[in-house]
Write a structure and sequence with these properties.
The complex is a heterotrimer of chains A (about 325), B (about 325) and C (about 280). Helices cover about 30% and strands about 25% of the residues of chain A. With about 325 residues, chain A is an alpha/beta fold. Chain A has a domain of about 80 residues. Chain B has about 325 residues and is α/β, with parallel strands linked by helices. Chain B folds into two domains: about 170 residues, Rossmann fold (3-Layer(aba) Sandwich), CATH 3.40.50.300; about 60 residues, no CATH class. In chain C, strand 1 and strand 2 form a beta hairpin. Chain C has a single domain, classed as MetI-like (MetI-like fold), CATH 1.10.3720. By secondary structure, chain C is mostly helical. Chain C is elongated. Classes of the chains: A alpha/beta (about 325), B alpha/beta (about 325), C mainly alpha (about 280). The interface between A and B is large, with 45 and 45 residues.
Chain lengths: ~325, ~325, ~280
């Protein structure tokens, strides 16, 4: 495996004393798509903010390192980080229309991270627009975001994020606000650009379908911890953590029996104040025993090149 | 017996900005039989939510006919509308804004019974407790406010409120879209269960084909204000006739990498045109891989292929 | 409940003191605020008269300033509270109707609001009092009926927003009539911002009352009000500073407290701070 473009080691974040992200580690190689998947409140978006070094004020990083290529950027001052964002590391968001400046022309927004004079930037912006599949780029380049549809805006966001050829792209629910036919287009585009440009993509999503579509590897998060991680096909084929297994079984599919009972996960995600010493999924887990409630299971290798944080990984069906 | 819902050539137009009306729903006819669930799918702006709101009289139809249990609602009096609303109830997408934050969930569930003078006092409390239990909540939670509940629990409260009047027709407008994946399954199970118990008809509006397939008996597909295909569930998913239905099915990402990656990747090109200026002829022709000259000029008539109704010149 | 900061605790206790002082004025006042005495004219604060202490001094007619300020607080707070209530009710009602029915109702109401807001409020009050004649009730009516447009604007915008929410549609489906919809479903959900407006208006009302009384258009002599006390003390500023300084300070501290309280309330009512 090539040297990772992005490495997160043992990241821990806390808000007023509660560990909302606890010992999260992963690495993304150039040209690879790693999906960080989980339900709301599992800490996946905060992890992305920590990678961008854009944590909200109330949240403190209590441990862990973040490396971009070979640079440890954990303690970099804001001024240096600003040169980094948009250049070596960029991000796209769920609501493309809200993330674009409504008063700036499309071309100007895309060109911003190029830091070139307008005339010399223009041909590159045009090429980038074409590359993200925007028809008639010569006309679109001078339009404002409100003149574009949601899918088109997301393409513009991707163009903005990728024009400076960053080595890492963070995509936070990039297709959640889009229609399925447009989502399919955008996912294909992301996949193609990641491979062509050898960009490492960290994809934050709640949608297992999206993960199955474009992720090379997946890390399933639950209540601030990684429950399981490994190659997408292996994780989906034989989950190593009961949470992954139940989550997958709870999704209606085009292939299952209509009106059949879907698997449910009893109870609810614990609030950060309720985190105990053991596995955070223990209260809802059909396999949990006394040890699960007392000890935190470490992420250990299981078959198929995967890691699972479960004492009973071998018994997950 | 009269059908719980019978729509005939329904049009709902809104005044548009540039003078041209927005044809959100533009000539839709369909009906739902007692105890049947009709899934209505389509992408944003296709008019499915507008249609749902017009059915319950929250939006005035421009023309056409909406019959609920045989009663015509277009042009009906206030009293008729109010009486009919007791028989048609709705579950909304966002459980956060579906409940009045200043009302306890018990008050919310009991409100339809109270304002229609069906129950009061102790009998009302008993009925509310029964409804809470029916949707899997504890009767002791009646005094709590919505913010004390999780999203899934709130949606249960909304469902309990909708069931209070024992409606003949339940309209679900994207009822699980705002919920987390694991909670979605709980609410879907509940809806399927309740429908089997009560035998009410259900109009289930969603953009998620897998969810619709899970709950529906028949499925209608909308595109830009018109129905493009309506078929029994198994027929629609096994042999989709309309090119749009096929594209939609192909675009659903299956939560299975083996299946998903084996799928032919022919994403639909282009964007959905504005409903204020729909394309002439077949509205889908601008994005249709099969479009022929005729599609650009002539509106395809509704025709039957076996059990499937379809509006397409080239479908077979 | 969130914890209250020490600074806010001071503000809240000062407000409580003002309210108590006004309510218990007859019990707390050492003298009859209306009793004149030529022997006690313009005594400085702390003077003793026949064994009784004039804590804040006396005015040109020999009346005890402390007693007059206590009774004046009554007038100020009562006028402010009543006029705020009048404008709150009128403004909210009009705003809710405009926001609910929209169309012509909204156009009519909102044009009226624009008209009212383009007339200087104090001028309108002065003219109205001049026509109706001064006095307590007229003061309340004038202030109440000129200050409603701000509530209307807020109520209108909030109602427009709330009216589109699914729970309102659900209540309609439940069979609620317009009255129940407005009172049970809309009003409780727009009340927060309106209370915030009412608080900031309360401070303004106290100032307006003082201003009008100062001009002789509010509370009429011999009844005390902070504005009229200061007005009367104006000619003695050089000889009897206490006549203007003490009521002025009361006015300043009270309005400051009310305004700080209003800001604090606004932060709490802020929807982002609410646990939805």
């Amino acid at each position: 495996m090539t040297a990772p473009a992005l490495t997160v080691e043992n990241l821990s974040l806390s808000i007023s004393g509660a560990n909302i992200v606890d010992g999260v580690s992963f690495a993304v190689a150039p040209g690879e798509v790693l999906a960080l998947v989980g339900e709301s409140g599992c800490g996946k978006s905060l992890t992305a903010s920590a990678v961008m070094r854009l944590l909200p004020d109330a949240i403190r990083q209590t441990g862990g390192r973040i490396r971009l290529g070979s640079d440890d950027i954990t303690d970099w001052p804001e001024r240096r980080l600003r040169d980094l964002r948009g250049q070596r590391m960029s991000m796209i968001f769920q609501e493309p229309q809200a993330a674009l400046d409504p008063l700036a022309r499309v071309g100007a927004q895309i060109a911003e991270s190029l830091r070139l004079p307008r005339a010399s930037a223009r041909p590159r912006v045009l090429r980038m627009l074409e590359d993200v599949g925007i028809s008639d780029p010569a006309r679109r380049i001078d339009q404002y975001p409100f003149e574009l549809s949601g899918g088109m805006c997301q393409r513009v966001m991707i163009a903005t994020a990728l024009i400076a050829r960053p080595i890492v792209l963070l995509a936070d629910e990039p297709t959640t606000a889009l229609d399925v036919t447009i989502q399919a287009q955008i996912l294909d585009l992301l996949r193609r650009l990641a491979v062509e440009r050898q960009t490492a993509v960290l994809l934050i999503t709640h949608d297992m379908g999206v993960v199955a579509d474009i992720a090379d590897r997946v890390a399933v998060m639950y209540a601030g911890r990684i429950a399981e991680t490994g190659p997408t096909e292996a994780v989906f084929a034989r989950p190593g953590h009961p949470y992954t297994a139940l989550l997958l079984a709870s999704i209606p599919r085009l292939s299952d029996e209509p009106k059949s009972k879907l698997a449910v996960i009893d109870g609810r995600v614990p609030a950060p104040a309720e985190f105990g010493p053991g596995c955070r999924f223990a209260e809802r887990c059909p396999l949990a025993d006394a040890r699960c409630r007392a000890e935190t299971p470490p992420l250990l290798p299981v078959a198929g090149n995967r890691l699972a944080a479960c004492f009973h990984a071998g018994r997950v069906a | 017996m009269n059908a719980p819902l019978d729509l005939h050539d329904l049009h709902v137009h809104f005044p548009g900005r540039g003078g041209a009306p927005i044809r959100a729903v533009d000539g839709v006819s369909l009906s739902i039989a007692p105890g049947e669930t009709l899934g209505l799918v389509g992408e944003s702006g296709c008019g499915k939510s507008t249609l749902a709101n017009a059915v319950v009289g929250l939006l005035p139809p421009t023309s056409g006919s909406v019959r609920v249990l045989g009663t015509e609602l277009v042009g009906a009096s206030r009293a008729t509308l109010r009486a009919m609303r007791a028989r048609v109830q709705m579950v909304f997408q966002d459980p956060v804004t579906s409940l009045n934050p200043r009302m306890t969930v018990g008050e919310a569930i009991g409100e339809p019974l109270l304002v229609r003078n069906l129950f009061r006092g102790a009998a009302l409390r008993t009925e509310v407790a029964r409804l809470l239990e029916e949707v899997g909540l504890r009767p002791s939670q009646a005094g709590n406010y919505p913010h004390q509940f999780s999203g899934g629990q709130r949606q249960r409260v909304v469902i309990a409120r909708a069931l209070a009047l024992r409606p003949a027709l339940l309209i679900c407008d994207e009822p699980v879209s705002a919920l987390d994946v694991s909670v979605r399954a709980q609410v879907l199970n509940l809806l399927v269960e309740l429908q089997a118990q009560h035998g009410m008809a259900n109009l289930f509006v969603s953009h998620d084909l897998a969810v619709v397939r899970h709950v529906a008996d028949r499925v209608a597909v909308m595109y830009l204000g018109r129905l493009v295909e309506l078929a029994p569930r198994d027929a629609l998913f096994a042999t989709p006739r309309h090119p749009y239905t096929r594209a939609l099915l192909a675009a659903v990402p299956e939560p299975d990498p083996v299946v998903q990656r084996a799928k032919p990747h022919v994403p639909l090109t282009g964007e959905i045109p504005s409903p204020a200026a729909p394309p002439p002829g077949c509205r889908f022709h601008t994005r249709c891989p099969l479009a022929i000259a005729r599609c650009r000029s002539e509106v395809p008539a509704w025709r039957m292929i076996g059990e499937t109704g379809v509006a397409c010149h080239v479908a077979y | 409940m969130k914890r209250i900061s020490p600074g806010m605790a001071v503000i809240l206790s000062l407000l409580a003191i003002f309210a108590l002082a006004a309510a218990a004025a007859p019990l707390l006042s050492p003298f009859d605020p209306l009793r004149q005495s030529l022997l006690m004219r313009l005594r400085p604060p702390g003077a003793m008269v026949s064994g009784k202490l004039l804590l804040l001094g006396s005015d040109d007619l020999g009346r005890d300033l402390l007693s007059r300020i206590l009774y004046g607080a009554r007038a100020s707070l009562l006028v402010a509270a009543l006029s705020v209530s009048v404008s709150l009710v009128v403004g909210t009602l009009l705003g809710m109707l405009a926001g609910w029915f929209r169309g012509w109702t909204a156009i009519l109401v909102m044009r009226l609001v624009d008209t009212m807001l383009s007339i200087p409020a104090i001028l309108l009050a002065v003219i109205t009092v001049a026509v109706l004649g001064p006095g307590f009730l007229n003061l309340v009516l004038v202030l109440g009926l000129t200050r409603w447009p701000r509530y209307t604007r807020v109520a209108y915008a909030q109602t427009l927003q709330v009216a589109t929410l699914p729970y309102i549609r659900a209540a309609e489906m439940a069979g609620c009539g317009p009255l129940r919809l407005l009172l049970r479903h809309v009003l409780p959900n727009i009340a927060g911002p309106l209370v915030v407006v009412a608080t900031s208006e309360f401070g303004l009302m106290i100032l307006f009352e003082a201003g009008l009384s100062f001009l002789g258009l509010g509370i009429q002599p011999p009844y005390p009000s902070w504005g009229s006390i200061m007005s009367a003390g104006r000619q003695y500023v050089a000889r009897a500073w206490w006549l203007t300084v003490f009521p002025g300070m009361c006015l300043f501290v009270l309005v400051l407290c009310v305004n700080v309280f209003g800001d604090w309330l606004r932060d709490r009512v802020d929807p982002r701070a609410q646990g939805r």
